[in-house]
Write a structure and sequence with these properties.
Blueprint lengths: L2 H5 L2 E2 L2 H9 L5 H15 L2 H11 L7 H15 L3 H11 L2 H5 L1 H17 L3 H18 L1 H11 L18 H18 L7 H17 L2 E2 L3 E3 L4 E2 L10
Parallel strand pairs: 1-2
Antiparallel strand pairs: 3-4
Length: 235
């Protein structure tokens, strides 16, 4: 974008923008539902119970059932994958029977945990018995299996090319996939609405900036408005 094109953009001051935002009315009930949706989807049972009493907002689901889902998620996050699988099958055996990719990822996580514990022989036997047959049926699974087994070739897995598999984030990824599957089986939303709304806001700001020089929220935590680019002075 050239200098002349940039200067032709309409500019809105921070004061004018704040007045426009102040004129927008959002119902408190809608905000409460958004908060409750986040608490329920993410499994904050106690917080949801307190919020229900204080705001009189219905969670829309049995909060007691959330406890089982969160215990399953915590089991994966702590590396107890076998326990998580048993709990899922007790809750609804069709989840793992129907979702083959999820089932593979759980078994993959079991393999990772065996490698983490230094059980090399057991890890190899497990990979051959439970994962290799699935890899032969699905090229995508085979690639993931090969990356996981490659961990056995390194004494220091943290500095290996596949170190990401040993990171706690890998457990979280598997736990989130399982959590979403349970939510789907219970006809609930897989993800809370709030993060999606924030992503939409960032997208809208980006599109708007192409035509209008206006304040933007750059810090989502503080939710403070920046000055328009035309009013910002270099440090």
């Amino acid at each position: 974008m050239g200098k002349g094109e940039a200067s032709a953009k309409r500019s809105i001051s921070k004061d004018d923008w704040e007045r426009k935002l102040g004129a927008v009315r959002v119902r408190k009930e809608d905000m409460n539902k958004l908060i409750m949706n986040f608490l329920v989807t993410e499994g904050y049972v106690e917080a949801a119970q307190i919020f229900e009493k204080e705001s009189l907002t219905s969670p829309g689901v049995d909060l007691g059932a959330i406890t089982d889902r969160m215990e399953i998620r915590k089991a994966v996050q702590s590396g107890n994958v076998e326990e998580a699988i048993e709990r899922v099958n007790d809750l609804n055996p069709e989840i793992l029977e129907e979702k083959h990719q999820l089932s593979f990822h759980l078994q993959q996580q079991r393999l990772i945990e065996l490698i983490r514990q230094g059980k090399t022989e057991e890890a190899l036997e497990f990979a051959q018995e439970y994962l290799a047959p699935r890899g032969e049926e699905n090229p995508e699974f085979l690639e993931e299996l090969e990356r996981t087994v490659a961990l056995l070739a390194f004494e220091d897995t943290k500095n290996s090319p596949v170190a990401d598999l040993m990171d706690i984030a890998q457990r979280q990824k598997t736990a989130s996939e399982l959590n979403a599957a349970i939510l789907s089986s219970q006809c609930q939303e897989k993800e809370p609405r709030l993060p999606s709304l924030l992503k939409m806001m960032i997208w809208a700001q980006t599109k708007l900036s192409e035509k209008v020089d206006s304040p933007q929220i750059t810090d989502l935590v503080a939710a403070t408005l920046s000055d328009p680019a035309s009013e910002q002075r270099p440090a």
